[in-house]
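Homework help thread (please don't just give me the answer)

Our assignment gives two proteins as sequence + structure token strings and asks us to describe the second one. The first is just a warm-up. Here they are:
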Amino acid sequence: MLNITDPCELKAADIYRQARTVASKTSRSTDSHWYRVPEELPWQWHLWFDGGREVCSATFSKQHNRWQPGPTLPLANLTTGEGVNEVMGELMSSRYFQDKPKALGVILHVADEFALAEIAQVGEAVGEAGDDFQILRYNLIDDPREVLADREVSTEANSWRLLPFWGATAGQPRCTAVTLSRSREAFLQTLLSCAEDLRIPVRTAVTNAAVESLASLPLLRPDMAGGCLVAFAFYKFTAVFAIGLSGELQTVRSLSHRGGSPVPTAYGDILWNMALGAELDTPKVLLVSAQASVLQAAAQELEMYSLTRQVIEFETLNLSEHPALTGIPGFRPEFLIYDTAAVEQVRTGKTKLAQSNTFKALWSSWARQSFMDTARLDNLYPSQRDLRMLRFSSWLVALLAFSLLTTAGYGTYSLFSAMNHPSWELSPEAMKQTQSKHTKLLEEKKQIDATERLLLPRSRGWVTLEFLFQLFPEDSGVRLESFQYTAEAARPPAKKAKAKPADATGLVRTWELKGLVKPKAMELLSTLNSQRGLSALFDRVAEATGDSSYRPDPSRQLTVTLTQGRNPRFDAQAGPGDVARDPSQAFPFNFEATVSQVLTEKDELSLPLDKPF
């Protein structure tokens, strides 16, 4: 096992060295299972014990929602920690799970003790309404002495967790603290040490069986609406919960079994007083146990009390015969809150208990509160983000070292190659000839580039005809009477003082059209009279011809001048013969349009001014 020191006691360099050791000796930087709670892991091992001779061991595969009996573990081993290596070897095989576990969540259900402690100043901690218990919950974990009424408690021997009373009325306690001893944590620490040596993520939790049993009540008695006392009988004690008429928890009592009796002393009086405190009109009690003999003894006690003192209505619930616990090892209701199917059944349940705030809160997190403060143990180790950053920094250092070595090697090779190049042996006359040849080649390349630029196709006749076809498609209702196309160099801008002379000049292309149109072609001309329509026309020509000079560009300016008017030669009553002699009589409108395109001197198709030769 790694010797981990609290980072608060170390210097920065020691923290870094410890983090490197954790990253190299464990899988915490790559395996996210180290940072999950036990009930979230796909492979779980549940241990339940009530102080008797046997320990109920069960494994649960969350992925397959399958329960089965787990490895046998004597009760003494929970204290001594013996046989942990053998048990871990069995659990990590495929014997208890359908697939080999990559991690393990161990949950210890403590059913041999159920002590309650009073909370001090509940109103100041959670407000007079008592609706938000989260602050009090975390304060009880961090500093129990500031929350409990008894300030002389031992945090080394015990741990406390909050149990709110969601149905408490005015004047009643709003919550209590459930106490468990920390005697079983030694076994879990041994288990964690063994798992760390095997580099297997193991997450542990210690829970209270009585509270978990209460959470399972909506599945054990779906028809229950509330207004009764529920007594869960265990080997050493009986936990009695008062459920109000609205299905909310009002109070709880822990009744010890003395002298080996399965029934608490003065059982009837205690239940009667609890029923009165819960303001129940008719005391109703539900007796719950997995042993028929315990239920029989409790029923006899309440029957005798009803005959001699006060009438108490009761009924029994034998867990070993309950259909909801079929397939659950040991018929333990504590395991139900971890069962995937059971969780979904309660979430979608329409019973009054399942819809109450008490059981919603119990199933969400309150019933699974861990009495083992694993957060403090986790804080000793670097977080997964820190370990990943450490691994990334190691890769970065290795990459920098490799880059440095590569650069040094390449520099050495380049220097060696340059020193052995034939140019080192050239005479001054040969160097001058080589320089002269190089200069001549550069000049020739410059001339070739200038010539290629000068000979670029900037204006082609067949493309101009395609321009007309794209502008006026066939049967568009246009009669073109005249067309003129010109392409000339743009006027150079005025020279500024000390300005560098331009090496190219722009190009201006103009299309002048004149003709007659019918009404159906007026819309075509109107689209030409907008910048968007004009750009679309040039884009169509560029796509059809592949001529990049027609491609619209923000640096290329397109303008159009369009004049429309009525045709004076139009005759609406002209016959076919008249139209054949003079076609202009069939066109009611005439138009004149001038389209210009300006290519600046910075355009790739601009005309170079330098002579290539």
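The one we have to describe:
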Amino acid sequence: MRPNVVILLLWLVLIYAIDFTTAFIFNKRLQLPDTYSGNTPYKGLGFDSTNITVPLRTQRDIGLNVTIDRWLWPAIDLKAAYFGNDYSAQKLSHVEELMYMGYRRLVVDLYWDPDRHTWQLCPDKLPSLSVPQKSKRTDNNNNENRMVHTATPPSPTTTEKLLLSSPRKSHNSVNSLPTLSTGHTVNKLVPLSQEDVNIGQYKCAPWYTFQHFMDSVNYYVTATDVSTAPEDTNLLFLILNLHQLQSNNNNDNNNNDDDGENESLRDILRSAIDSTYRNTSRLYTPDDLIHDRHNLTASFGLTGEEDQQIIVDPATGAIASDSAWPTFIYLMQRDIQLLVGFGSIDLPSDTNYKYLEQDRSTIFNSTQLGAGWYMNQVNLTNMEAMGWEDCARPANNTYVLPMENNETSVSLPSLQQPEPDGTVLSWSWIYMNDHGNNPGFSYNTTMKAVQCGYSPYFLKNNYTDDNNADYSVNDTAHLSDNILGTIWSWDIGEPKISSNPHCAMVQRWNGRWRAGDCTELLRVSCRHKNNPNKWILTQTYVSYDRAFSACPDDYVFDCPRIAQQNRMLFQELQIDLSQNAPQGDEMNDLFHHLFWINLNSGNNGSCWVVGLFSNCWWLTNNVNLFQKLIRTSAVAGVIVLILVGIFAWIKCARWWRYRKSRIRKNFIKDLLARREYTTVPA
């Protein structure tokens, strides 16, 4: 084999070695748990077990056409359940793990320092800062001169280098700690020490700001976007609780902005989150929602036939709504991955942070995303006291009712209508929290809350089996077990992976699903065309492919798309048992207690779809697969092209020199052949 070919092959091997090493380092950086260790039926399974990843992915895929306000979004309060008193660099460096565990809503408490003009996660005042000096420089993004406070920071520690590293060029060194992208004065304030410090009851990393937190969020959304890892792509919600620290300025000059420009939350969010490969934003904002609601047909694809509270513009005929939310697939088609909302805001009236109104164009208010006060209305303690008898009545004087026609609900019994002075909540963005409950959510209570239609909101700092168990403050593995209770679809150990086509059946005894042979003869689950909560069961037994024509008029063969719909189907199964119970030996026949739902695997056990001849959206996007390949090895590909060019140039140069030499030799040979020589005798 020629030497240049050997060298090229070695370079290709090196490229793939670099990719493998990068993936290895990435996993090491995250330090995700190897196995689930909590007291659940999944105990001992690996973090990437298909008995967990496939059910969670199935729940995502079957709900593509459900509006996002009715989805299941497990939430965690970072201050209460993750940080506690530990805001050290080590604890901060692992916050990204929560997103990979499956938490979809992170409640973040931010503290405005009126002296430093910056947002931080540490709940106490940070140490004094080095005195900045003003210098003038020209920004590379525009030609405006800006006054920038500069100070020489000490060398960062290894942990800080890890946290400060980022795919964004503007945040890859300590010297780029300030992250504003506005055309005004920027404060570049660097702590005297980069080491963790003890401040009152807290241990904090002084240099860590909200910008660094958003860099971790950016790591997650870019690593799991549609073009990179569509099988793992999901939405992420951030809820920001805003507080202000006490000022050290005795002259009470908090309103004086002469010392620098405030860090706008809007600017931090927009500068930290990378755009998509199509150069569009990953953020879905209130302005986007307002625009989409003005014409539902052009945005969400609604025609007015759906059960929506719609308004028809008489001038244009456009269908509009004040309450409609996009579906999950609508956001995925636009590469949207992040929504940010306000929770509680307790900034003083004289705060020197002046950009709340500006932020509202990017950050939803607490009412829109059901955050803040709304997330704390339904409590696990009260629901347990009610005995879980009525999902729509989580407390004596609290009721959860449909507020819009498009909301599905477990109906209230006629004798339990809301009292005049009762608290009435909507099923939209509904949460159940475990505040005040000891020991908080367990696997069973989480599953009960989810089956009722509530998203769990975790507020405890320890979810281990033994509340008195000793564990490292930086150990977050116990938090991963909480997500297991959100699996409402497939039963334990299901679906079984097989190369043969399998179809889904719902079990009468627990309402969970199992995979089986599509040729079995079973009764069929049928959903009403206009009411996703209304189900009936056929009396005839058919195979899966015959189930599509087995339902009566006004009903369709379908599967539940959200947990609440699955609960309603389960109730229908129990009613059927009391009215049409099998007799004699048939009572013990398994197939009299299994019913078809519209879900099958085709030839891929990890991809479950509704309907025949379908495929998972994340398997058919070949363009995204190519984009992933190109983006993953872009630098390596450029290196290969340069090397190939060098080898080609060397080879062409050799060939050209050889050609010129051969021409010259032939010319001299021909010249000598034409000359006549005379021999002179001695």
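TA reply:
I won't write it for you, but here's a hint about the kind of observation we're looking for: The chain has five domains: 1-30+634-682, 72-129+147-249+259-284+327-369, 285-325, 378-465+474-486, 502-625.
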